[in-house]
Amino acid sequence: MTIITFFISLLFLYNVESARVLLTVMDQGRSHATSINTFMHRLQKDNHTTALEFAWFHPDIDFGMEERFIDMKGFENPFASPDFDKIAFEEDYSFIHQAVAYGFGSKTCNNILKHKKERFNEILSEDWDLYLSDSLFAVCGYGMAEISGKPHVMMHSTDLESAQGSFKAFSRCKYNISFRILHNLFINFRNYATFVPSNLPFTMLDFSVSKYFHRIWAAYDWFGSFIFTAFVGNFAQKWALRSIIPFPYFSFSEYNRRSSYTFTDMPDSLFPPASRTNDFFSFGAYCKPSSKPLPPDFLSFIDDPKSKGTILIAFGTFIDWRRAPKHYYDTFSTIVNQLTDYRVIWSMKGERPPGLRDHVKTSSWVPQNQILHHNKTVLFLSHGGLKSTKEVICSATPTIFVPMFGEQTRNSWLIKEKGFGRIMNKFNINVKELGTHVREVLEHPTYQQNANKFLTYYMDQPIPTLDEGAFRFNKLLKYGGKMPAFFYPRALDLSHITVLNLDMYLILPAMLIYLLK
Ligand SMILES: *[C@@H]1O[C@H](CO)[C@@H](O)[C@H](O)[C@H]1NC(C)=O
Ligand SMILES: *[C@@H]1O[C@H](CO)[C@@H](O)[C@H](O)[C@H]1NC(C)=O
Ligand SMILES: *[C@@H]1O[C@H](CO)[C@@H](O)[C@H](O)[C@H]1NC(C)=O
């Protein structure tokens, strides 16, 4: 017995050899790469070699990883289309846009395999131990992992998307049908209908599971994303990868199903409670230190003794005020000019527009995190990307969100639920509306109190999530990149009809019809 214990403890003491991992993200994927970056840097501390691959159209920032970019200069980046501004400012975002984005990624991948096949093969031939795949639009990255024969892990730059989650059989009841009927009818009907949809529509910013129509919508969004990702988006991927993955071609659902782990950047404490499987881990609940001091011009502006507090307006890298519809700028500038007791810092590209008063500072670059952490900052106006959302949490700053697209509405909703954010509807941008939101937050200390309270929950962890994530990652490597079969949920091997309980919905009415006949 002691000998066995001895060998078992040896197994746990055994240090993981350093591995070579390749992270593949979407085209010019700065946003996704920087979400996953923190975790990659943590892996470097354990002596793993980390490299980053994406299709590269123009120079970008230093990601702190080895670079394996595929130079696509001279080709059109489908994601940089002017249609994008139209979607951001004027349209509701849905799973249909998501499928279009897989089409964009497929277009680039098709170009890579046609014109840059050598570079693709060069990266592939480096013999990586493990591939980490961006769950969104990294089509050639999926192809590379698939033909390498090496294991792969899905990396989600936000929460698990509903389609990808279902391919991996998450959050579903794994029992047989008799048990599932009992479970669903009498115990807990928690499934796709009760999750806040990631593409939360602007008519549902007050989403609540107690509202019947909202649950219907959640289910619609879920099935929609499932179908559009599994069939429409996948059709483009099959086409793009046809030269390296022959008939029956690439299957995105199968690719997800066979992945050996799922890591997400969505902090668990922020998301509503959800069922989990062994092969799921969120490393997202961390705060990046803001150790760098504020540049002197910002500091002197903020420290003005006449100021009652600082207000920061920053809408991320995507949104350009010059291309926004005119009433956006007019509304914001009108309100901002009225807030003379405060100091307003407004991140905008291009020239400073005329008419802004002296208490407003504009800049094409702002040290967002440092400003948020400054103790005079009282309000942030943001688009609700997950990275900004986390900076809001870590700096405990009351926020008014103006979400534009993607899962930003959902992120905003999460903070609103925690009581330190408000959401402004982009289809209803006017002076009265914005004025009300701003006054509400500035005049009620509860927003600040709730932000402080949530931060204590967020940081209350047995061990830092990045360390736990690295521990799980090392364990996976110890097993050669794929855990033994018992580690994974049984539902992975069942059909979708069974896993989604669709059979159950059919059997009950069928029995009733039979009995009543
Ligand atoms: C990483 O490598 C350095 C230098 O070889 C070594 O000192 C350190 O202990 C290693 N770290 C881990 C976590 O193995
Ligand atoms: C179904 O699962 C339940 C719970 O796991 C078990 O008790 C029951 O025996 C199973 N029924 C059948 C028909 O396998
Ligand atoms: C804000 O920070 C400064 C220095 O960092 C400190 O002197 C001041 O007391 C702080 N103010 C409040 C209200 O905490």
Automatic annotation (TrEMBL):
The keyword Transcription is assigned to this record: no
One Pfam family named in its UniProt record: UDPGT
Protein name in UniProt: glucuronosyltransferase
EC supergroup of this enzyme: transferase
Cell location: Membrane
Transmembrane segments: 494-516
Membrane topology of the entry: Single-pass membrane protein
Record keywords, A-Z: Glycoprotein, Glycosyltransferase, Membrane, Signal, Transferase, Transmembrane, Transmembrane helix
Signal peptide: 1-18
Superkingdom in the source lineage: Eukaryota
UniProt entry tagged with the keyword Nucleotide-binding: no
Reactions catalysed, as given in the entry: glucuronate acceptor + UDP-alpha-D-glucuronate = acceptor beta-D-glucuronoside + UDP + H(+)
Gene: Cnig_chr_V.g18658
Organism lineage string: Eukaryota, Metazoa, Ecdysozoa, Nematoda, Chromadorea
Organism: Caenorhabditis nigoni
EC number(s) on file: 2.4.1.17
